[in-house]
Design goal:
Blueprint (H helix, E strand, L loop, with lengths): L1 E3 L5 E4 L2 E2 L5 H11 L6 E2 H9 L7 H13 L5 E4 L2 E4 L7 H17 L3 H12 L13 H28 L3 H14 L4 H13 L3 H19 L5 H11 L57 H10 L8 E6 L6 H10 L7 E5 L5 H11 L11 H12 L5 E7 L2 H4 L10 E6 L9 E5 L5 H12 L1 H6 L1 H10 L4 H13 L5 H8 L5 H4 L1 E2 L2 E2 H10 L3 H10 L6 E2 L1 H8 L4 H9 L4 E5 L5 E4 L2 H14 L4 H22 L14 H9 L1 H25 L3 H10 L1 H7 L2 H17 L3 H17 L3 H11 L5 H17 L3 H17 L3 H15 L2 H14 L2 H17 L3 H18 L2 H17 L3 H18 L2 H17 L3 H18 L2 H21 L1
Parallel strand pairs: 7-10, 7-11, 8-9, 9-10
Antiparallel strand pairs: 1-2, 2-3, 4-6, 5-6, 12-13, 14-16, 15-16
Helix pairs in contact: 1-2, 1-3, 4-5, 4-6, 5-6, 6-8, 7-8, 8-9, 8-10, 9-10, 13-14, 16-18, 16-19, 18-20, 23-25, 23-26, 24-27, 27-29, 27-30, 29-30, 29-32, 30-32, 30-33, 31-32, 32-33, 33-34, 33-35, 34-35, 35-36, 35-37, 36-37, 37-38, 37-39, 38-39, 39-40, 39-41, 40-41, 41-42, 41-43, 42-43, ...
Length: about 950
Amino acid sequence: MRFGVLGPLQVLAGDRDLTPGPPKHRALLAALLLRPGRLLTVDRLIAEVWGDEPPASAEPVLRVYVSALRKVVDGIRTVPGGYLLDVDPDQVDAYRFEGLVTAARRARDAGRIVRAADDLRAALGLWRGPALAGIDSAELRRAHAVPLEELRLTALEERVELDLALGRGAEVAGELRAHVTAHPLRERAWGQLLLALNQAGRRSEALTAYQEARRLLVDELGLEPGAELREAHARVLAGEAPSPNMANMPNVRNTPNAPSSAHSPHIPSSPHMPDGARAVPNETPPDVADFTGRERVLDWIRRSVPAAGTAPVHLVLHGPAGAGKSAVAVHAATALDFPDGRLHASLAARPPGAVLEDLLRSLGCPQGAVPADLAERVRLYRSMVSGRRLLVVLDDAADEAQVRPLLPTGSGCLTLVTSRSPLSGLEAARAWELDVFAPGESVAMLARVVGERRVRAEPEAAARIAELCGGLPLALRIAGSRLARRPNWTLEYLAGRLDDEHGRLDELSAGDLAVRGSLALGYRALSDRERLLLRRLGALSAPDFAPWAAAAVLGEPADGPLEALAEAGLLQARGLDAAGRERYGRHDLTRLYAAERLVAEEGPPAQVLAAAAREILDRTRRARTMLLPAEPGSGQTLVRTAEQAAALETTQLRESARWLAAERGFLVATVGDFERAGLDEAAWRLAFYLTPFFELGAHREDWRTTAELGLRAARRMGHRHGEALLLRSLADLHRMEGRLSEAADALQRALPLAEVGEVARTRHRLGLVHLAQGRPAEAEACFVACLAAFSAAADRRGRADALRALGGVRRAEDLLVRSLEVYRELGDPRGEAAVSLDLAGLCLDRRRPSEARTWAERGLGLVRRLGDRLPEAGGLVVLARVAMAEGRPDAARAAAEKALGTFGEYGDRRGVAWASLTLAGALLDLDEIDGAVDAVTRAVGEFAALGDRPGLTGAQELANEASRRRGLRI
């Protein structure tokens, strides 16, 4: 079996392509393939498959994915703490690529140039496109795709260097022209293009290419060409014969084919360059004694170190204030060997000219020889670093303009830049965003500062301190320092002091270290409008938000200030959300600082929230209306034409669902913000508007949290109608969870509070509870009363709901068909899909499998177009039952297993119960008795826990049959 990650993921067994289809399966397999034979923890895999916001059921779903992959790939082993893929690395194209590059370099160093070129050509031939193409994992792309792409470019340039040494300039000139077009800032490639054109006898084109490269470097970076490109230009100018050049090849300078060094032109030194000055500076500050973790970024830095004679590498470590960027840079620098020295400069707000003066002195330039002009200083600096292999640490950079003149251009040099900004305009650099510590790393750092013994004695308090510090290294260091200086303090005592949000920033101060001071530096550097946005965002407790929400609190478009705050490291761009919009986040301590500034400069947050509430409620109400075509809380129905309904299916319905999915965390947090600020009307309405979305996605904890907050707000303001609506919402949640007595109690309390138009809706839900409790007579009475009330009020949607419920309890096909017609008239595809599946089940009970399949496929098609995964899983269960009736148990098993996976992923216990029961029947027909017993046992347990008597009765009957057949087989 062969695996490919150098392009789209590929799994080949002979001529068969076994590449998994689901995106999450591909991401999981890629994560395992990129580290064959190595343990990957469950937490690591969850982060790489789902990113920063995994679902609550990520761990069991991961097991399902692993199980599915094992059917395709041998060697996935479960080990303590996680999984590993036991395959030969040579089966993975990325490892074959790296192995061939290593072999080529050995052959080159041994003077076997033709073999080295062939190995590099074979290595590059393994690439089929961008590394990890189509893999939806920012973690994997950042950690693996970027380094692989960089190695590919380096390998290409090394192979070209060998081809030039073999006199193949004419063959590679076209390839090089395409290469510099794609990567215009790679000076080494431009130099190779000059030499290739010269070898091909196209000297004038080579000189033109140099001018093109110089103009581009000056315009884009403000830099003159480096030593390597200047040397190539000088060789062309000197009229050097267009013959193979072996002079730059390692270990082959004395071979018979190597030209004399006399052909190399003399490049005069700068007039300011002191003769014989060759200082070896070592200016890196002392390493941090309690440095903790950061293995991934340290490994990235180590792997990025350029080899001697190769192009310089510039790395940017960026992240929020206090993330430990400087500590990482210093720790990495002290462990790296650079024979010509290490330079270090603290930039802050210093102009580049002043920094250059310090760097020149460090390199041995006498005081009187430092030029006054900035351009002259830059030229002298480049001359002095040319030929030296240096490590340069540029700490706390403000922007790209400050950094560009300080970048060393010498071969093999490495620059480590730290900044709150990613310095996106620094085209020649690669960047790594330094995030906060994971919980385990946070506790480990705390232990390094305060002592292992004290942390082991109070592990829960240590974890709480780490959580309250938000994993921010600066905050953890301060907390640890305070504990270290106060041996009589317990960790529990400090955790209690930090627990108060209003005083947390006061507590996180020790000596000259203070989180507030670090944040204040960034705040003071902002414009008035940027400061206004940052502090108003302090009114929101959500961990992230979209630009529309920032505009709502600012009172005007906020795109410009958002980008500026992200550049300043006070916000972090989190990438595109489910709705395709950029999201921004901030550290929790940044939020507290912003809230502090809001109170100090504008007053309590209620005024900001009140101004933003209308926009938030309007957007949520519009999205809800698309999901549920009724005006919230009114009992009125929106009527849509068939054409409108069709358009909504393909556009607005999906867009609304995506918007709600993207904004779920923000809206849940905002309900709490409104309630705490005393904005009770906004709190209960927002909680109510979110109910159908939570029901469709089975987001039960969010549902519970917001409904309880909304209920409290409605009661506090004495809004009886709002209280009734939130009680009804909680009842729906209780029914879904199988807590039927609690659901009935909530509905009974809601009935006397509900307005006239909502009484029938509340009674309708009470009927559904009675039905789940196994009390069909009481359920039918409720549905009959509801139908009469809805008809009298001309509430067409309510009438459709009542007809469907009554048709279900009476098993009356005509009532279901009438319900379907009303849903169609209303343009409600979700209602139409649900009734279609009801009709499929009824046809099955009446032994009409052909009609049942028609209805099931119609309902399933509707929910798939809508993108509703839970209703789709319900449709798959119906389709599995149809397949059983048609005598196709294999198809039934496949549909039931797929449904079971979806229900399990969403934590839908009722769905799990019915899918397990259906799967058990299919397995029984396939004579897989043990599997059937396992599945029906699970179904019995779920139905019993849910209090679903009808479901439990059916499951027990099938369990008895499975046990009987197992006994017969034995």
